[in-house]
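Just curious. Protein, please.
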Amino acid sequence: MIHRLRLAFGLLLVVLASLFMLPLQCLCLYFDWKLRRYLPRVWHRLVCWVFGLHIRVHGAPDRRRPLMLASNHSSWLDILVLSAVADVAFIAKIEVRGWPIFGHFARLQKTVFVVREQKRKTGEQVNEIAERMAGGEIVVLFPEGTTSDGNRLLEVKSSLFGAAAAALPGTPEGVVHIQPVAVAYTGIHGMPMGRYHRPVATWPGDIEMMPSLRGVLACGAIDVDVWFGETVDYTADSNRKQVAALVTERIRTMLSDLLLGRPRA
């Protein structure tokens, strides 16, 4: 009963906050005010509290710009978590744009939607990502291209790391910083989650959104660890595939350490 009352109160707060913040965000987008970069973090922190997400942060986003965060991806919750700890914009597949509710919020956060199947649009999309980074925004890339079961890192697609190369001409020092990030769902009601309970938080395969959302709300207490790793510098002399391989290995190592309860930062 107490959990239901807290949830109802929390959802009411989200509705009230949204009624104020969403029109303000629309104005920020229309006039391209810098506030549009920072406002989503306030909203996402509130939503994470309502959902019972307890976030532990290890390390911090690199202060240097341009900055791309490359993270593993196991749940729609990753969006909420990363948006709650940093002022970020995301790179997402075009299908996300049409999702009910979440697609609308993604547009309000000025997500870059990519169409991987249409190669003629790849250059435009990469250029947009490069311009956003060159303008000082932190862009989040999920290089797996899909969600995993949260227990491992899937095969990484290196193509969108090309945005780092495209951003180089607009950088004063000729370098783009790519920081590996690991997001791990590690606990439930204060107890280690393990493989058996991790599906409560993760969203692999063809599971529909609403059942996953109901499961998270019913749980009401999930521990999340976010680890910002050592940055890799991308320069004109860098090889895209080699950089992608190095970033991938660091994400995989950090994710494994978090799931085993041994973060080093």
Observations:
- The chain has one domain: 52-259.
- The CA atoms of residues 67 and 177 lie 5 Å apart.
